[in-house]
């Protein structure tokens, strides 16, 4: 029953803070994805039709937009949170 919240090494917050402040310890953060206007337009149109994507739909959209499935998944998660804040 050794469950985690999904954050790697929750107790290593100081190390992550040091890395974020320019320290050499810890993993480098991924650069923020700069979506093109065409990608955003297609993502928004898809989001208007359906708020949640299944695995096969996510795979197809990722291939069509030349993005990773994780980028698609994260975009949809963030977009749902944006919608929730607006409501």
UniProtKB/TrEMBL annotation:
Signal peptide: none annotated. CDD domains: homeodomain. Residues 1-22 have a biased composition (Low complexity). It is found in: Nucleus. It comes from the Eukaryota. Residues 26-86 form the Homeobox domain. InterPro entries: HD, HD_metazoa, Homeobox_CS, Homeobox_TF, Homeodomain-like_sf. GO terms for cellular component: nucleus. Residues 1-35 are annotated as: Disordered. The keyword Iron does not apply. Keywords: DNA-binding, Homeobox, Nucleus. GO terms for molecular function: DNA binding; DNA-binding transcription factor activity, RNA polymerase II-specific. Residues 28-87 bind DNA. Belongs to the BAR homeobox family. PANTHER family: HOMEO BOX HB9 LIKE A-RELATED, VENT HOMEOBOX. This is VENT1 protein. It comes from Podilymbus podiceps (Pied-billed grebe). The gene is Vent1.
């Amino acid at each position: 029953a050794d469950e985690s919240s999904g954050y790697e090494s929750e107790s290593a917050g100081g190390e992550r803070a040091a890395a974020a402040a320019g320290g050499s310890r810890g993993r480098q953060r991924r650069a923020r994805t700069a979506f093109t206007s065409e990608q955003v337009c297609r993502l928004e149109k898809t989001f208007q039709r359906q708020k949640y994507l299944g695995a096969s739909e996510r795979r197809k959209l990722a291939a069509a937009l030349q993005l990773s499935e994780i980028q698609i998944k994260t975009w949809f998660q963030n977009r749902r949170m944006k919608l929730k804040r607006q409501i």
